[in-house]
Amino acid sequence: QVQLVESGGGLVQAGGSLRLSCAASGGTLSRYIMAWFRQAPGKEREFVAGISWSGGNTYYADSVKGRFTISRDNAKNTVYLQMNSLRPEDTAVYYCNGDPRSPRGSSLTWGQGTQVTVSS
Description:
Blueprint: E1 3-7, E2 10-13, E3 18-25, E4 33-39, E5 46-51, E6 58-60, E7 68-73, E8 78-83, E9 92-99, E10 114-119
C-alpha cells in the first residue's frame, strides 16, 4: 500500500516562496496521475494542481495558475509543488494524492499533510 509523506511547509511572508515535497513508499507513483490538494480552516479540501504519469501534462486551479508549478521525479518516487508569490489566502494544510485515471482524483490513502502559513 502506497504511503504518502508531505513536507516543506512553513511560515512565509506574502510574496515569498516554498517548495513542497511528497514522497511515497510501499509502491511506485509512476502508475498514478498525481495531484496536490489543500484544506484551509473551515473549508473543504480543494484541488490545487495535477500532473500526468510522465509529467508531460499539468493542471492547475485558477487561483494558483501562474504562481504554482507541479513537477515529479518518478525515479525518486516524489512529487513537488513550487509555490511562488504566495498570498495569505494560500494558507492551508497541503496534501498530495493520486489516481490511475483522473488528474483530480484521490484514490490513495491521505498523508498527514504539511502546513503552509502565509502572513500579510
